[in-house]
Amino acid sequence: MRIIFLTSLIAALVLAAGASAQPYPNRPVRFIVPYPAGGATDIISRLIGDKLGAALGQQFVIDNRAGGGQKIGTGLAAGAAPDGHTILLVSITHTINPSLYAKLPYDTIKDFSPITIVAKSPLVLVVHPSIRAKSVKELIALMKTQPGKLNCATSGIGSGGHLAAELFKSMAGVDMTFVPYRGGSLAYIDLIGGQVDLMFTSPAATLAYAKAGKLRVLATTGAKRSPATPELPTVAEATGIRGYEAGLWYGVVAPAGTPRAIVRLLNAEIVKALQFPDVRDPLAVQAVEVVSSTPEEFAMYIKSEIAKWAKVIKDANIHAN
Fold first, then answer.
1. If residue 63 lies in a helix (H) or strand (E), which one and from where to where?
2. Considering the entire predicted model, what is its pTM?
């Protein structure tokens, strides 16, 4: 059945383009990553790109276009020819930016064709050991007795960790002072040194410090416990704050107007790639869980995330330059 399905997709591509056209892909595919090399987005794109190249017989070339709050690489993809030879890795930032910036060089909904979500990762709520709170409930109680006194580090205004903290602040009815940094590494230095008190951040970067006693992890921010840290409760589980969920996610989109047959083929091959142990296992080490969807499901998810973070950003009066 799998062979018949993929054969039908390839046949549809040839018919759609004309009998004399070469089947897709007929040249290397540019896989734009609007982040620098070395991070989770880069790792995900290279793992998927290698599998796509092997399956479809053309190289998927990773093109790191970092900068501008991911607007540079994303705008480049939006303006590319919609022929399947350019695809883009997107993250939660893709759905935050429409509310964070007054103007974007693209339309997040109209300028892209969603292919599939590929992975999710919760954040962790972590505090410096000097904070007298051994649980999220105790942290909330401490915050309520000292409104605004505790400092929360973020890797930047409007980052996933910042908005997870803003959502927590709103739903828990507490106050804290946000300290934005230019990147997570600088924030970590001050958190470990005790210059700031807490942070919502990636579990992969935190657990080693927690094992060494330099930080204390209280909970994860997902809807359910993470397979990477099954011993940790979720924020909702630990506090009874129903509906609290935040975290990072990653997906693949193409320029709007990309033929549906190509979108379906890429979806099928990416979903297939995500099942390989040599894709899943390296991501699990980073506390990233593989997931997948149909293009239609991913389109709905993107819209729901835009609406969710738009409310958080508006309520917190967050603006980016």
1. strand 60-64
2. 0.89
